[in-house]
Design a protein that fits this description.
The chain is an alpha/beta fold. It has 2 domains: 226 residues, 2-enoyl-CoA Hydratase, Chain A, domain 1 (Alpha-Beta Complex), CATH 3.90.226; 47 residues. 41% of the residues lie in helices and 16% in strands. The protein contains 12 helices and 11 strands. The strands form 2 sheets. It has a 7-stranded mixed beta sheet with strand order 1-2-3-4-6-8-11, sandwiched between helices. A 4-stranded mixed beta sheet has the order 5-7-9-10. Strand 1 and strand 2 form a beta hairpin. Helix 10 packs antiparallel against helix 11. The protein is globular and about 55 Å long. The two termini are 23 Å apart.
Amino acid sequence: MTDPILSSEDSGILYAVDAHVAQITFNRPDKLNALTPAMLGAFFQKVDAAAADPQVRVIVITGAGRGFSAGLDLSVIGTAKPGPGGSARVDPTPTDGLVRQWGDDVGPGLQRFFSNGWNGLITSRKPTIAAVNGAAFGWGFILSLHCDIRFAARSALFNATFARLGVPAEKGIGWLLTRLIGTARAADLLYTARRFDGVEAERLGLVNAVLDDDQLLPHALAYARTIATQAAPRSLAAMKAQIWTAIDDSYDEAFAAANLEQDRAVATQDFREALSSYKEKRLPVFKGA
């Protein structure tokens, strides 16, 4: 296991890799992991680093202490330069220059959604899991929604705070919520800006399961390691592209894309290893090739 490393001095992000699972932790617990621009930039860099690392097969996001992330640190509002139309922008872009080439590995996939930063969790070829402990408000809530799978602690609280702050549904949350839980339920959470707990989040379909606080991270990491051990990396990459584009593609487009990926998959070493391990009744040893 690699030692947890701050992505830069006092960045507020911890990063560690163990058993093909990268764990990225918001580490500003005295502020409920409220996000500063530097902290968010460091987070995006670590997402990109995990996406580009062949030793990483699954990414787990969580928070230190009593919160996942309370969202943008409101003390930074007004400190950034205006963006287009005069609105203040505080979201940084990654500086490490890492680029994911979807087309080289799994066809066109998610190229139409590609950009640095916020949707790196979506465009990453690796499955992403949010282990939501405590508060997930505002931008923290949005970051959890960018993950493929979410688990919540019983102490978790969610809040789309934007209407009360006089801003629109920021950073794609209107698209994400509507896609995940439908128009009426998304409208309820956005218009009222009310807090809701993990139990309601599970009922709405926003989280996959609610766990006791002390079981949340062990469960998420064990779940991630199961995927990393038993699923072929290239299959995961293709499936992730299929899942995130499914609602936007027609049936015929999705069917044709699946056939193309199947033809590519059966020519790989991992496909042959999958068949051999199944016949030999043992766990597969996938190499991502």
